Amino acid sequence: MKNIVILTGAGVSAESGIKTFRDDDGLWEGHDIMEIASPQGWYKDPEKVLKFYNLRRRQLLEVEPNAAHYAIVRLEEKYRVNIITQNVDDLHERAGSRHVLHLHGELLKVRSSQDENLVIDWKKDIAIGDLCSKKSQLRPHVVWFGEAVPMFQPAVEITKKADILIIIGTSMQVYPAASLLDFKKESAPVYFIDPKPAISPHPSVRIIQKNAVEGVVALVDELLKKDREQSI
Length: 232
Known about the structure:
Layout: E1 3-8, H1 10-14, E2 27-28, E3 31-32, H2 33-36, H3 39-44, H4 46-60, H5 67-74, E4 80-85, H6 91-95, E5 100-102, E6 105-112, E7 119-121, E8 138-142, H7 152-160, E9 164-168, E10 190-193, E11 205-208, H8 212-231
Parallel strand pairs: 1-4, 1-9, 4-5, 9-10, 10-11
Antiparallel strand pairs: 2-3, 6-7, 6-8
């Protein structure tokens, strides 16, 4: 059974109604990104940071997985599928995907502001004064600019095993996530699904210039059909 590794970004979640990472003006829902997604912003105004993520968490609980999420699950019928997502939502899991690595953290978890390994499931608002068992303030379990990406090395090891690599809805401009492409096997074909693909042409890369729902559903149908024909 072949390994498919899928790298997903904001374009997959956008079609469920979740806003993409940043607007054309460089702001994230009206905020300077460094004010609400950096350690400096947290130390300067933790209440502003918590308010921002509380709103995002509430929004996440109101949306549902879309057809792209469900199409990815179908691949598990014939392939070993691992998802590496840059998204902090749980839409892949809610759709039924079993193997999901969150590169940049998870919105429905919080952690101690002093011990990054003390992580708690959390679906309500975080308030100033909400403390972990070590009596430190709870913060979003999200990797901010300037912080290490602890799940990057596990993501590298997963990518190395890919027989097929599918990239969906990501600009491939944010590092270290963008460098995962460098770790795939030379023989592994790449399918890049994005309406505005920002990737250099390469013989091993097939660009599918469509949005996530349209592109993923079509590609999954194609791959499953090809698998059936090869099994005959």
